[in-house]
Structures are given as C-alpha cells and as structure tokens.
Amino acid sequence: MRIATSATDGRLAIGEVARRSGFTVKALRFYERLGLLPPSGRRPSGYRLYSEADLHRLEFIRQAKALGLTLEAIRELVVAAREPGGVGARPRLLRMLEERIAQTAQQIAMLTRLRQELERRRRALAHGPYLEHGNGYCPCLERTGEAVAPRASLGKAACRRARPSRRPAP
After folding, report:
1. What would the 3-class secondary structure string for 51-102 be?
2. Mind listing the domains of the chain with CATH numbers?
3. Radius of gyration from C-alpha coordinates of the chain
4. Are 124 and 162 within 8 A, CB to CB?
C-alpha cells in the first residue's frame, strides 16, 4: 500500500503524518474534530491529506501538551495563530505559561508538604511503640499526630513489618 504523498501537491496521507508526527491516526482525527488541525483535504478515495505546515502544528501541539497545556488551551492558541498576522497567539501563550508556572509552584508546595508529612509519620512509626490491634485495623497512623482514617485494614503482619525489630543484633 503506497499512499505517502500526493504526486501533484506534496500533501501527505494520514498514515504518513501519523508516522512522522508520532501521533496515532485516531489522535489526528480527534484533533481535527477539536479544531486543532484544520479540516484536511481529501483524495477522491476519501483519504485525508495533510501538509508540512500540519506537521509543524502537530509538533507545536506535542510541545504544548508536554508543558501541561490543556487541549482547549491549545485550540485557543491555534485559533489565535490563524488570525491575521497571528498577533493574538503570543500574548495568550505568555498568559498561559504564567498560569502554568503558578500552578506548578502550588503543586510543588503541596508535594513538599506531603513529603514532609510522610517523613514525619515514617519517623514516628519507626521510633514509636508497638500498638495493639484491638479494633480490627492498624492504629499505627493514629498515634503519629493527627488521626487518619485508614483506607483498608493492613492487618497485624503489616504493622509488625513496619516497626523496627527489637531483637539484639547477633
């Protein structure tokens, strides 16, 4: 099956664009439905055709996704780039990047607090006394600070494995 480019205008078949862009054929169709890719031309046989400019747009989409932009935000940028002169795309992209930087800073702060809490609870569990399992669940997290409702019963064996051994070293 030899459907790579059209001999007359250099347009690429969807399979070739998928291969060269790294996106699946299904993703290309989806992006076209969302308006991220302009409606492609078609061969008389119905195969979608794309241009080199579409490959560049797909690379832009890949980079924008890697930066955490949503498909809706990417669509907004693509539409702005199609405006006369494309002057609206740059300020929008700057605004979006500033928002992503702020979101990322918040996520880093939240993850830092989570790491600190995990370390605190691990230290408390490792150095704390062994607790009995009287209520049908492991109370290990309750005694390390604020009470936390366990998601599932770990059983006595899990708590025994989590606490340090009290046997003297040989």
Report:
1. CHHHHHHHHHHHHHHHCCCCHHHHHHHHHHHHCHHHCCHHHHHHHHHHHHHH
2. 12-121 (1.10.1660.10), 128-163 (no CATH)
3. 28
4. no
Contacts of 53 (CB under 8 A, 6+ apart): none
Instruction: Name residue 82's amino acid.
Output: R
pLDDT tens-digit series, residues 48-83: 899 999 999 999 999 999 999 999 999 999 988 888
CA 4 to chain centre: 32
Dist. CA 161–CA 111, nearest whole Å: 26
Q: Summarize pLDDT for 109-155 with one digit per residue, the tens.
A: 999 999 999 999 898 888 877 767 667 667 677 654 544 444 444 44
Element spanning 136, H or E: none
What is the C-alpha to C-alpha distance for residues 57 and 51, in angstroms, rounded to an integer? 10
Tokens representing residue 164 in the block: 């340090």
Cα separation values, 152 from 41, 111, 158, Å: 55, 23, 12
